[in-house]
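Q: Predict the assembly, please.
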Amino acid sequence: MRKDRSARRRAARACAASLLLALFALSGSVRADAKRAAPADPSYVAECGSCHLAYPPGLLSAASWGQVMQGLERHFGSDASVDAATHAHIDRYLREHAGAERKFGTSALRISETRWFRKEHDEVPAGAWRSATVKSAANCGACHVAAEKGDYSERGVRVPRF
Ligand code: HEC
Ligand code: HEC
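A: Predicted assembly structure:
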């Protein structure tokens, strides 16, 4: 009888330990993905997600975001300017959630021109970028089907035929 109970206790302990381990692993992967998470700031999503995906702030450095925000009147051939208060708000939001300089550099105005991006995408065939459905590397959602949700995982990638 007693033996039985201690075995059960041992099993319960092992179970709790593996649960803890699973939680730990999960929190680790959530942390790792935080840089790519779908942006949560409503004003950023409204102003910067109307012409294209509201890009994850963690995929450019604060210095790069600063440059992007300084040139909104002439933004890749469009006028993306916003009023001063909104500008200050978005500028702060992007800087606070920006990625590391050592990873994303300080000079790129595009996520798609950082060394990090090129490395992550070095196996994408050249023709795919130019295909009719992709057109531009900035068009993340053409291949990452759940990019709007911040999901860039391997199982969500469908590179269109070209
Ligand atoms: C009026 C439309 C418009 C609005 C609004 C807009 N953008 Fe853009 N954005 C563009 C265009 C056009 C491109 C170039 C897309 C391409 O190369 O295919 C672009 C590209 C970008 C890129 C580079 C993407 C890459 O990695 O190649 C970033 C970063 C960016 N925008 C940030 C922003 C931010 C931040 C805001 C809000 C302040 C914003 N955009 C609002 C039109 C817009
Ligand atoms: C032409 C298709 C295509 C486009 C457009 C594209 N990607 Fe990718 N991306 C891929 C492929 C293929 C991979 C590699 C898949 C893998 O191994 O996980 C990848 C990998 C990634 C990864 C790494 C995923 C991981 O879990 O390691 C991130 C993050 C990412 N892309 C973000 C972006 C962003 C942000 C944009 C837009 C600025 C973008 N991608 C545009 C095809 C594309």
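The pocket of heme C (ligand 2) is lined by residues 36, 59, 111-112, 120-121, 124, 128-129, 134, 137-140, 142-144, 152-154, 157, 159 (CB under 6 Å). Residues 83 and 89 are 10 Å apart (CA to CA).
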